[in-house]
Design a protein that fits this description.
The protein is an alpha+beta fold. The protein contains ten helices and six strands. The strands form two sheets. Strands 3, 4, 5 and 6 form a four-stranded antiparallel sheet that branches. The chain has a two-stranded antiparallel ribbon with strand order 1-2. Helix 1 (4-16) packs antiparallel against helix 2 and helix 5 (91-103) packs across helix 7. The longest helix is centred in the middle third of the chain and has 19 residues, at 119-137. The chain is elongated. This is DDE Tnp4 domain-containing protein.
């Protein structure tokens, strides 16, 4: 895939050979200059999970090194991710991009040193993995998950809560909400402005069961709900 940088190098070579005029060179050079900051991603090594030790994987991805291939298989991610404009990425690398992005709030440029890719590629790959997971697995937390919330499991949860000294013997989960800040939108700013947190944000509400799993997720919504 040709990059802006490669196009500019080719234009410079063409100009030095006299194939284009100075005006043509300046016009084409400007058209092939990205409006985004151009980070030196080529100075970093390409990502390889085998080069990471256990401590790095646990810190950067929140998963043990040997568990990442298992997670890839459970989620059903393909071995190769291909973006619409032709960027190709191995499934393991794509999953690690998303895990590092979600492990701690960071910019896409913060991921560049780990994966050796330009920011647009990291953004496209991460978003494609998010879309894949949502399309294939969102029903597990947005709908009633019979695997986690069947009658037998609900009784186990209720017994666990009751055995810890709860006043109720039929409580199987715990409801909590969270406010997640977002960038200020161009339109409908009032709908997502949170007067309490003083930020533009979306709200989510979830039910967590005693086994530590999020059993149900509601959201995102604006400031007028719950």
């Amino acid at each position: 895939m040709t990059t802006f940088r490669n196009a500019r190098d080719l234009l410079l070579l063409t100009f030095c050979e006299g194939s284009i005029t100075e005006d043509e060179f300046l016009l084409l050079y400007d058209l092939n200059t990205s409006k985004n900051p151009e980070y030196p991603y080529w100075d970093y090594k390409k990502f390889c999970l085998q080069d990471k030790d256990e401590a790095e994987c646990k810190t950067e991805f929140r998963f043990q090194k040997n568990d990442i291939p298992l997670l890839l298989n459970v989620l059903g991610l393909p071995e190769k991710i291909t973006c619409k404009q032709g960027t190709v990425c191995r499934g393991t690398e794509a999953l690690c991009m998303l895990l590092k992005r979600l492990a701690y709030p960071c910019r896409y440029s913060d991921l560049m040193s780990t994966f050796g890719r330009p920011v647009p590629e990291i953004s496209m790959i991460s978003n494609q993995v998010v879309d894949f997971i949502f399309e294939h697995h969102s029903h597990r937390i947005t709908g009633w998950n019979h695997t986690v919330l069947n009658a037998h499991s609900l009784q186990i949860y209720a017994d666990a809560v009751s055995n810890r000294g709860a006043a109720l013997d039929n409580c199987f989960g715990f409801v909590d909400g969270t406010v997640r800040p977002i960038c200020r939108p161009d339109l409908n700013q009032r709908l997502v402005y949170n007067g309490h947190k003083r930020v533009h944000a979306l709200k989510f509400q979830s039910v967590v069961t005693p086994n530590g799993l999020v059993a149900n997720l509601y959201g995102p919504v604006g400031k007028f709900s719950f």
